[in-house]
Amino acid sequence: MLPTKKIKPSQRCPNCGVVHKQWAELSNRYHVCTGCGFEVPRDRGSTMVMYNVATNQQPGLGTSLADCGCLSSTSSTNKRKHTGSMKQLGQRKRLKLQSKTEGLETPLVLTTG
After folding, report:
1. 39: Cβ–Cβ under 8 A, 6 or more apart, which residues?
2. Is 66 within 8 Å of 74 (Cβ atoms)?
3. Is residue 22 part of a domain?
4. H or E element in which residue 83 lies
5. What is the DSSP letter of 104?
6. In a domain, 43, yes or no
7. Which domain holds residue 17?
8. pLDDT digits (tens, 9 = 90+) for 42-57
9. Residue 41 scores a pLDDT above 90
10. In a domain, 110, yes or no
11. What is the pLDDT of residue 113?
12. Residue 107 gets which letter from DSSP?
């Protein structure tokens, strides 16, 4: 998920990256950039900005994934705890439980018959 408050996709030109405060009004449905002259419908422009940020192609200050505080899923600093299939997660859980119980004696259960 991209932080829209930092990126400001509805105010940013997808072509040059300039942020236009006058674009913030919801009644303005079509944008013309005063920086580069790029023209685009508001919703399409916002979508283009979000796509450009996600693919690291958006010009403008603070629009790379690292600048936005978003790291790609392939990043080595990814903080995910568990990945894999349910079978793999179950195996990991059993191994963890087994390592905790190793060395403990199992009580002898007597059955009367």
Report:
1. 30, 31, 32, 33
2. no
3. yes
4. none
5. P
6. yes
7. 4-54
8. 999 999 999 998 888 8
9. yes
10. no
11. 58
12. P
